[in-house]
Design goal:
By secondary structure, this protein is an alpha/beta fold. The chain contains 2 helices and 5 strands; from the N terminus they run βββαβαβ.
């Protein structure tokens, strides 16, 4: 089973790939401009991906940013007709201070 992991950012999108479903390796970084969904769809087709995993940050307070991640994941699922798993990540606010 081939999976594509997506670390969605405002400027760049990190892409990782897993053939085992257990461990993912870095694949590429895509500039977040233009039709990113179409580029990810093409990449998924080329790699034979069965599923996309989108990391969604969890904040102490709900923000518009979380909604943006969810919209991105929904749009990706509609465009690719693939299963989209949303992985919720811990609040990283002020972690690097």
């Amino acid at each position: 089973m081939s999976l594509i992991g997506i670390d969605y950012g405002g400027r760049r999108i990190g892409v990782a790939v897993s053939d085992s479903g257990i461990l993912a390796s870095p694949h590429s970084v895509i500039a977040n401009d233009g039709d990113v969904i179409a580029r990810l769809e093409t990449l998924g087709r080329e790699l034979g991906a069965e599923m996309f995993v989108v990391g969604v940050p969890r904040r102490a307070r709900s923000t518009d940013g979380e909604a943006k991640f969810r919209r991105f994941a929904e749009e990706l699922g509609q465009k690719t007709c693939k299963i989209i798993m949303q992985s919720y990540l811990d609040d990283q606010t002020r972690r690097s201070l």
